[in-house]
Automatic annotation (TrEMBL):
It comes from the Eukaryota. Pfam families: Abhydrolase_6. SUPFAM superfamilies: alpha/beta-Hydrolases. InterPro entries: AB_hydrolase_1, AB_hydrolase_fold, Sec-Metab_Biosynth_Hydrolase. Gene3D superfamilies: alpha/beta hydrolase. One of its GO terms (molecular function) is hydrolase activity. Keywords: Hydrolase. Residues 33-270 form the AB hydrolase-1 domain. This is Alpha/beta-hydrolase.
Length: 278
């Protein structure tokens, strides 16, 4: 099994970093970590985190989603395509007998929540199962909700606009350095900016029809200094799910929207902490 990293240049390309042989027996006893990127983000953004997780014995599968296609003609059905990509990745591991932890970042919480439905220990028809959902400063919402339904204001800042002359249906992030990467070292920030992909407007107008946090153990990694999905916004999401009678395990980092870049070691430790209780 390999860590799949993506997009070190504007042209999509794959790099496979094999797990060290010293980690192989250890990794086989741990759940595979499937990382679901947020809007505009690609596997390359999560490379530092993937390497940190790999170094403590985890196999990591970081996904490239259809919605981050940066060509001018973004497909209209990226919501369904992304759900299928995520679900197929999960089942490729569970069918091989491996348990899976799904780590979702930002908007990845929307599609990831639906994609993992029916794949938990109680529902799975395979020998492996999804044993933990981890929302990493991610949208953990209920059926029928969209990002727009949460409103706009201090707790829910507007971070994107329709501003691409090549594709009037595409959303582009407003000041991503400010909203996503304000605590990230400059060299990492520039590379992260260069690697940002696309996001169709239609994608973020969708809503999950079902959510896996109702059936699979769930954890939330709060990023206290997040300017895109604010601390108060994250707390509101957690409180709303807890109000449904669902237990949500919580850990916090004093990080921006991108802890996988600003503090990948601490982020890996937090994820490992959640999984020790899986």
């Amino acid at each position: 099994m390999a860590i799949q990293l993506q997009r070190s240049s504007p042209v999509s390309s794959c790099i496979y970093l094999e797990r060290k042989t010293t980690n192989m027996s250890n990794a086989a006893t741990k759940p595979v970590i499937v990382i679901v990127p947020g809007a505009w983000h690609v596997p390359a953004h999560y490379a530092y985190l993937a390497l940190k997780l790999n170094s403590i014995g985890y196999t990591v599968d970081c996904l490239e989603l259809s919605s981050t296609n940066d060509e001018k003609d973004l497909p209209e059905n990226t919501w369904i395509e992304d759900i299928n990509i995520i679900r197929n990745a999960i089942t490729s591991h569970t069918e091989a007998g491996r348990d899976v932890a799904v780590v979702m970042h930002s908007f990845g919480g929307m599609t990831g929540s639906e994609a993992a439905c029916g794949l938990g220990k109680k529902e799975s028809e395979t020998s492996g199962a999804v044993v933990k959902l981890i929302y990493m400063t991610a949208f953990m919402i209920q059926e029928g909700q969209t990002r727009a339904s949460l409103g706009v204001g201090d707790d829910w800042p507007e971070i994107a606009e329709l501003d691409d002359p090549k594709n009037p249906k595409a959303l582009v992030p407003l000041d991503p350095k400010h909203f996503f990467y304000h605590d990230v070292p400059e060299q990492k920030t520039q590379r992260a900016l260069d690697n940002l992909g696309g996001c169709p407007l239609s994608h973020v107008m969708n809503t999950p029809t079902k959510v896996a946090w109702r059936e699979i153990p769930t954890a939330y990694l709060i990023c206290e200094d997040d300017r895109a999905l604010t601390f108060n916004g994250q707390k509101q999401l957690i409180d709303a799910v807890r109000a449904q009678g669902v237990e949500v395990e919580v850990a916090s980092l004093k990080a921006s929207h991108s802890p996988f870049l600003s503090m990948p070691g601490e982020t890996a430790k937090a994820i490992h902490g959640f999984l020790e209780k899986a």
